[in-house]
Design brief:
The chain is of the alpha/beta class. 38% of the residues lie in helices and 17% in strands. The protein has two domains: 6-129, 2-Layer Sandwich (Enolase-like, domain 1); 138-414, Enolase-like C-terminal domain (TIM Barrel), CATH 3.20.20. Its main location: cytoplasm.
Length: 426
Amino acid sequence: MAKPLIARIQAREILDSRGNPTLEVDCYLSNGIMGRASVPSGASVGSFEALELRDRDPARYFGKGVLKAIANIHEIIAPRLIGMDATDQFRIDQTLIEIDGTKNKSKLGANAILGVSLAVCRAAAVCAGLPIYRLLGGAGTRLIPTPFLNIINGGMHAPNNLDIQEYMIVPAGLPNFREAIRAAAEIYFALKKILEEKNKPTYVGDEGGMAPDFADNEEPLSIIMQAIEHAGYHPGEQIYLAIDVAASSLYQDNAYIFMNPTRRTISAQELIELYTAWIQKYPIISIEDGLAEEDWDGWHELTAALGNRVQLIGDDIFVTNIERLKKGIQQGAANAVLVKPTQIGTVSETLDCMKLAMENGYRAIVSHRSGETDDHFIADLAVAANCGQIKTGAPCRGERTAKYNRLIRIEEEDHLPYAGLKTLMR
């Protein structure tokens, strides 16, 4: 049988969930098969992420257009990839890396590179008659991931007064993914009712979580506990809590500036003490970006203090980058890595980062971005890697529910067991 060769690559500008332009890429093969992928975009972006190329032309989309990235695909990337075997993902990705030639994908743009990498992967899966999770994961695929659902938004994801960026529920104590999502949706609507009774607005932030003002940064935890119970579930048994502090956005002059309820400066040690108090009071099972991306000493202290009690996820500090993750492993910083393909730029590098993490006892959590599309690639990625965890927003808004709905279908089609607490408990 003839190899499926790349025949044509076509890119276009589409809109993400925030109304900003982003890339969509089609990869056509020699046998007529086509794979399509789109690239999300983040608002809370780590300094060490691969570069997302924007046009910076104020006359179009206030400078956020991606025509330069599209031109790079058509004029530079496509001519090099045409004729290559679409099933050789590693070689495709290595070629993309070599064409760019920079550490942070700044020549071609990580969005251009990732769009092509994803589209080739999807075309190869269609050609093989396999779902993406089987193409990438093979026979070793065996888990449906536990979802982290952001039901209250703050920080850079919402126009409210919360310093902390995400308050999540984790339905890890349910028997399967279908029931976990049902529980999450019921808690979400119970939360909405409670907020309405408190005369708080229930508009939503970028990731679908509700985003009113609160008295302080702890009040959302208390209200979520009420919502869990009002929906008929048991906190700490069926439903757990998680937070994404996004501490890099609060970091100034080796300290952390919090504004709610009043402006105050907090040291890393004081933050660790705050997290310790919250863990004792609430069933918090995971803390993401509890300290800033360059506060390595603080991360070491945080991990030593709480690493045997909760999951400590590094996002900005690791940015899905193997070299930064290696440094974290050596220094004892965090015990988990957040995985975003947009941060590194190719499917292969994303998988390599997850492999390194899990081989060294770190957990891996596949994540969306705040500016999403309806592409559900990351749902397949989480299943393929057997990481057992996925974070993709509230059970609200189509670009978020597209990933959850995909996992419902995978669970039904392949009868894979639900990860639940398996990858969360130490």
